[in-house]
């Protein structure tokens, strides 16, 4: 985990979120003061998964399902499950007197919760930020030279994001955004920052 990066991003989000206090008197936004749920899909990127590998595919299809409650046009909470896909790569390992080709892959998923702060623009459109935690699960494996090994681990990481939503009616809308998660452990599966860029639909009720 890049501690300085995390602190900088988290501090920026928290600082910007304080500006939302001034919006508490904003006009009512469609879909607020209500429960909501949705699904989004897109592309995930593992920022550090290619370190030390000769070949690597650090992107895959990812998705998330979520549900939450918008207390006011500004403040809300949200719980989610996300599947960040699988990342693969290969490298050469020196095993005297030869080099062996080793292939590796890792998949990540998790569930978590975030607090949300929104910036309404009119009665249908809003920008939002999120900050909370992810309980991640990582499954990794490597094979080569007739041998195979696998390591699975789980733990807590940071979850944050930025996005925008548009409500067509009081009960239906679309949402797009960027989510950033820290997953894995340096001592077991390896640690990585994973970005998820996704878009999808939500319903309010």
UniProtKB/TrEMBL annotation:
Outer membrane protein OmpA-like transmembrane domain boundaries: 32-203
Signal peptide bounds: 1-22
Pfam families: OmpA_membrane
Entry GO terms, CC: cell outer membrane
Transmembrane regions listed in the UniProt entry: none
Source organism of this protein record: Desulfocapsa sulfexigens (strain DSM 10523 / SB164P1)
InterPro entries in alphabetical order: OMP/PagP_B-barrel, OmpA-like_TM_dom
SUPFAM superfamilies referenced in this protein's UniProt entry, alphabetically: OMPA-like
Keyword annotations: Membrane, Signal, Transmembrane
Protein name per the record: OmpA-like transmembrane domain-containing protein
């Amino acid at each position: 985990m890049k501690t300085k990066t995390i602190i900088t991003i988290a501090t920026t989000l928290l600082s910007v979120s304080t500006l939302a206090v001034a919006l508490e008197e904003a006009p009512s936004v469609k879909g607020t003061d209500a429960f909501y749920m949705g699904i989004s899909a897109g592309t995930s990127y593992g920022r550090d998964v290619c370190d030390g590998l000769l070949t690597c595919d650090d992107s895959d299809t990812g998705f998330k399902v979520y549900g939450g409650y918008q207390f006011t046009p500004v403040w809300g909470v949200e719980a989610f499950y996300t599947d960040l896909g699988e990342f693969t790569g290969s490298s050469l390992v020196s095993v005297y007197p030869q080099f062996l080709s080793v292939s590796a892959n890792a998949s990540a998923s998790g569930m978590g919760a975030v607090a949300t702060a929104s910036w309404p623009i009119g009665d249908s459109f809003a920008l939002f930020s999120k900050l909370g935690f992810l309980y991640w699960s990582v499954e990794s494996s490597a094979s080569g030279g007739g041998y195979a090994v696998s390591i699975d681990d789980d733990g807590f990481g940071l979850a944050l994001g930025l996005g925008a939503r548009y409500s067509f009616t009081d009960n239906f809308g679309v949402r797009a955004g960027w989510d950033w998660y820290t997953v894995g452990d340096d001592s077991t599966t390896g640690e990585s920052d994973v970005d998820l860029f996704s878009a999808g639909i939500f319903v309010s009720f």
